[in-house]
User: Which sequence fits this backbone?
């Protein structure tokens, strides 16, 4: 196991012995392939930019991977963004980045980040900030 980022309790990111990347946040461990992690990183960075520009549409975010959904406060985005950027920098400097390009993800549901409507808010449209339309 290789720790890529650690700032408990919000975020720990590590690479397991099998080569997968694990994002642990709020006591939930989400394991994924390197390529999935890197795609999620791109979504988190886009969401962070929207958050910084006061354009994130909610006080909450949903981090989804397959059947797992972790709800976070949007104020967690700065640290999550930093954590994932640090991990990606380490991955890119190692053999894991080469592995990322060779993995077949055609059957993967992938990880996604989306906004969560405010309590009591009735939205008749689909989430307008769903970053990955897959």
Assistant:
């Amino acid at each position: 196991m290789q720790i890529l980022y650690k700032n408990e309790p919000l975020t720990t990111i590590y690479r397991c012995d099998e080569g997968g990347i694990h994002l642990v946040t709020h006591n939930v461990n989400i394991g994924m392939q390197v390529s999935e992690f890197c795609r999620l990183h791109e979504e988190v960075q886009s969401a962070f930019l929207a958050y910084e520009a006061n354009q994130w549409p909610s006080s909450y975010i949903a981090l989804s991977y397959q059947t797992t959904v972790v709800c976070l406060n949007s104020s967690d985005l700065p640290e999550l963004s930093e954590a994932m950027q640090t991990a990606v920098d380490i991955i890119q400097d190692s053999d894991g980045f080469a592995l990322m390009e060779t993995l077949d993800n055609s059957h993967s549901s992938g990880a996604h980040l989306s906004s969560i409507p405010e309590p009591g808010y009735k939205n008749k449209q689909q989430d307008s900030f769903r970053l990955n339309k897959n």
Notes: The chain has a mean pLDDT of 79. The first strand starts at residue 2 and ends at 7.
